[in-house]
Amino acid sequence: MRLGDKIRELREEFGLTQGHLAGNASVSQGYLSQLENGDVKNPSAAVLLRVAQAMSVDPDDLFEAAGYPTVRTLRQIYQDYESNIDPDLLRYLGRLPRDRQRRLLLLLQGMETVVVEGAERGDGSVELATEGDSGNGRAAGGELPDNVRASRVQG
């Protein structure tokens, strides 16, 4: 459901006029009308929060209708991922300091990019590149096969 439709539906369900809701949410009636008509493309989270509080509804309902990620939607997405990961690994990763988690995430994102690029080429090769890479296929530790180039994850 679109954000404007959601706000209008909730407002009417609670028997509020646009003027009354706008006043309680500290927004102009014109702006609230624009929200309901879908004329506002990226409403701020602060406005959505005030509108939700003025109607005493869960702000996530409005955030989701506006296309913002919420804890509820992210939890659902991650449940799918978690079901494919060893629980011991998840516990281990959860105990890592945040900076190490970020570096690991960057590394994994880089690996995903490499796998996707290799699949798009369709030649079975895997190519990892770095900023300023001369393309010589050599890593700091020595020679690599011709179809593999080394990379470094910045973090």
Explain the overall architecture.
This protein has 155 residues and is mainly alpha-helical. It has eight helices and two strands; from the N terminus they run ααααααααββ. Strands 1-2 form a two-stranded antiparallel ribbon. β1 (138-139) and β2 (142-143) form a beta hairpin. α1 (3-13) crosses α3 and α2 crosses α4 (45-55). It is elongated. The protein starts with a helix and ends in a 12-residue tail after the last strand. The model is unreliable at 128-155 (pLDDT under 50).
Entry summary:
Helices cover 59% and strands 3% of the residues. By secondary structure, it is mostly helical.
Number of helices: 8
- Measured as a percent range, the helix fraction is 55-70%
Instruction: Tell me the distance between the termini.
Output: 39 Å
Secondary structural class: mainly alpha
What is the element string, with H for helices and E for strands? HHHHHHHHEE
Sheet with most strands: strand arrangement: 1-2
Low-pLDDT parts are 128-155
For the biggest sheet, the summary is: 2 strands, antiparallel
Rg of Cα set: 24 Å
The coarse silhouette is elongated
**Strand proportion:** under 5%
Mean pLDDT: 79
Strand elements, count: 2
Helix-strand blueprint:
Blueprint: H1 3-13, H2 18-25, H3 29-37, H4 45-55, H5 59-65, H6 71-82, H7 87-95, H8 98-121, E1 138-139, E2 142-143
Antiparallel strand pairs: 1-2
Helix pairs in contact: 1-3, 1-5, 2-3, 2-4, 4-5
